[in-house]
């Protein structure tokens, strides 16, 4: 039996990067998968094709997670299509790098709306559906190593990722009585759309690689296994936890 056989998994921000890897990983583990995406129609369709190639049902629903109504619509359409929601992977996020002293107000607001409030309302909508269903479920937030450490050009971003980590801790308490488990994954430096321009500098990339005990930057697929584990019944007694997926970067202070 596959780890997620019979489950319906929802993933936000899944047209590329970690979200796409999580969606495809869930399908390979036996789940039907509904993805949210913001604007990349072709990439979203390709993600659904990969889900279907794994032998599962897939559906893409376009929407901006910064709008609270997007969360309600996402869950409603998922239930209409596949009958239920077992897992919500809140992944959608942005990080427009910028210095602190001249940070534009709109950049801060947009980052908070997408990363933190988007995650909040997606998890809330999914949790309400899970409570109505009455058989529990799992919420997984894609936080970041940036929830634990600072970044000079990420003063708007790191608080949102710390907020998602904290949200999972609090919802673990709020939803435990409903059998809903709430956990976060904290990726380290993963090669995605968010940082591809920043890491185009070869010297910076080699510096970052040298700081990681496993000797390489992460790939989006490195998150698929940990997310599938937390979504599965193998993690039946895991809630309120945060799993670092960073190649050992966080512990490498010296």
From TrEMBL:
Alphabetically ordered keywords of this record: NADP, Oxidoreductase, Rhamnose metabolism
Enzyme Commission number(s): 1.1.1.378
Domain of life of the organism encoding this protein: Bacteria
Protein name: L-rhamnose 1-dehydrogenase (NAD(P)(+))
Gene Ontology terms: biological process: fatty acid biosynthetic process; rhamnose catabolic process
Molecular-function GO terms, alphabetical: oxidoreductase activity, acting on the CH-OH group of donors, NAD or NADP as acceptor; quinone binding
Pathways involved: Carbohydrate degradation; L-rhamnose degradation
């Amino acid at each position: 039996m596959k780890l997620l056989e019979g489950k319906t998994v929802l993933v936000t921000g899944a047209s590329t990067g970690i979200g796409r890897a999580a969606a495809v990983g869930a399908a390979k583990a036996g789940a039907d998968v509904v993805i949210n995406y913001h604007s990349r129609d072709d990439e979203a369709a390709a993600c659904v094709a990969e889900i279907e190639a794994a032998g599962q049902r897939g559906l893409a629903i376009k929407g901006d997670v910064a709008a609270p109504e997007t969360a309600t619509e996402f869950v409603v359409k998922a239930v209409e299509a596949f009958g239920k929601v077992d897992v919500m992977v809140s992944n959608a996020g942005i990080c427009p790098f910028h210095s602190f002293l001249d940070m534009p107000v709109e950049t801060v607001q947009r980052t908070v709306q997408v990363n933190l409030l988007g995650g909040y309302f997606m998890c809330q909508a999914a949790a309400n559906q899970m409570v109505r269903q009455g058989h529990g479920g799992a919420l997984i937030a894609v936080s970041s190593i940036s929830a634990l450490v600072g970044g000079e050009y990420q003063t708007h971003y790191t608080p949102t990722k710390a907020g998602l980590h904290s949200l999972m801790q609090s919802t673990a308490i709020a939803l435990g009585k409903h059998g809903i488990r709430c956990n976060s994954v904290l990726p380290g430096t993963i090669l995605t759309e968010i940082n591809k321009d920043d890491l185009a500098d070869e010297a910076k990339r080699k510096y970052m690689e040298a700081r990681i005990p496993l000797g390489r930057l992460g790939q989006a697929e490195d998150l698929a296994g940990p997310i599938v584990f937390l979504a599965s019944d193998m993690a039946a007694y895991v809630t309120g936890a945060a799993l670092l997926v960073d190649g050992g970067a966080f512990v490498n202070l010296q």
